[in-house]
Amino acid sequence: xxxxxxxxxxxxxxxxxxxxxxxxxxxxxxxxxxxxxxxxxxxxxxxxxxxxxxxxxxxxxxxxxxxxxxxxxxxxxxxxxxxxxxxxxxxxxxxxxxxxxxxxxxxxxxxxxxxxxxxxxxxxxxxxxxxxxxxxxxxxxxxxxxxxxxxxxxxxxxxxxxxxxxxxxxxxxxxxxxxxxxxxxxxxxxxxxxxxxxxxxxxxxxxxxxxxxxxxxxxxxxxxxxxxxxxxxxxxxxxxxxxxxxxxxxxxxxxxxxxxxxxxxxxxxxxxxxxxxxxxxxxxxxxxxxxxxxxxxxxxxxxxxxxxxxxxxxxxxxxxxxxxxxxxxxxxxxxxxxxxxxxxxxxxxxxxxxxxxxxxxxxxxxxxxxxxxxxxxxxxxxxxxxxxxxxxxxxxxxxxxxxxxxxxxxxxxxxxxxxxxxxxxxxxxxxxxxxxxxxxxxxxxxxxxxxxxxxxxxxxxxxxxxxxxxxxxxxxxxxxxxxxxxxxxxxxxxxxxxxxxxxxxxxxxx
Length: 510
What we know:
It is a single chain. By secondary structure, the chain is of the alpha/beta class. It has two domains: 167 residues, Golgi alpha-mannosidase II (Immunoglobulin-like), CATH 2.60.40; 324 residues, Glycosidases (TIM Barrel), CATH 3.20.20. Helix content is 25%, strand content 26%. It contains eleven helices and 28 strands. The strands form seven sheets. The chain has an eight-stranded parallel beta barrel. It has a seven-stranded antiparallel β-sheet with strand order 3-18-19-20-28-22-23, covered by helices on one side. It has a five-stranded mixed β-sheet with strand order 2-1-21-27-26, with no helix packed on it. The N terminus is likely disordered.
């Protein structure tokens, strides 16, 4: 095996044998970490063969896993038809659709309980309801769903306690948008925070909430004509752990159950708080692992009840994201990792909330799109997940902030995603996969972890794009060349704050 000179680097040894399927609880792989003095040659890595359990199967990654979430009052400025059939939003969603199936578009958020169809200005309405949902808004959503084949989750106002309002919006939505493009109607957004609406919500708790949901379903369920056409409970904070109970109670009506999670908070001012929005906190393993930990119990409950579960609203920092954190390359690394953690839990997908500082893409004053780093992470994940990909769990030691994910495609190919989330230290991943050869590699990188614009995935970047199409850019391969060190063995250099996608195909028999 060739020696590799490393300066102030760490070397990981990873052995992965893909010809056997094994489950998350049956992981066993070996790794050896060899230290190297600056300027000296590193000893050859010692590889411990992987131990596999062929009796278990790998975990599938669902199609339509990626998605977005927008507010009702942002539909027209954010999702509207800006450039004819080359509308940037449609182009960006179609790019994800070609890789992993049509994205799910959720319309809701805080505006969900502040909005109503053809807002009745002449009648007494709650003080917090002020957003008017018009025919034009639904027409724009219908156009988007037809262009991208996306399915919609449409938010209904529960906070106002007006089932008739929800029925009108549901009826008009199905009349204007093709019913086949509507995945579900979400009844209320984050009801665990409804105390902000005052009485009777303030201090009422879950019993009162469930009575209101029952009152809504009594009116809305007959309109579904036997279909499971609703979503909820969209819990975010104090009630999220009770989602399994909600699923069990409302399973007969649920097309999907949704939860919300933000690891950080833009309004948090205490720098010592784990929720303080900083690049360092965003790239901590806990900020991505929360998307596995907080949804796992709900996924189990959903599997028993036949209800898919997804993160209906998520992003880096609540409160619209934080400038200098949510709109940097750090968000691309975090977002990729968070999606894989969600897939590891067996959930159905994610919806990144936008716009704001955390938007995956934004529009400038002239209507031209600005594709932000988070979208590159969504793009990388969709490339790795593919159609009907299955996770191949990997065990490895992690002295640095390294994450490695493996996906097996339907034709037996392996797609390996490596994320170095360490901000200062480089790494070399020593990867061994018996019977496979390297077919393709692609790097996700930026000028720095703070970069907003100078981001690329492989030879592609959206810098300068006005319609959502990427263009090729020169790529410096001098310091990032993968070294083949034997049959089915590679040394993969990973600079600080960078990602990589490797595609491995089966080696033809000799």
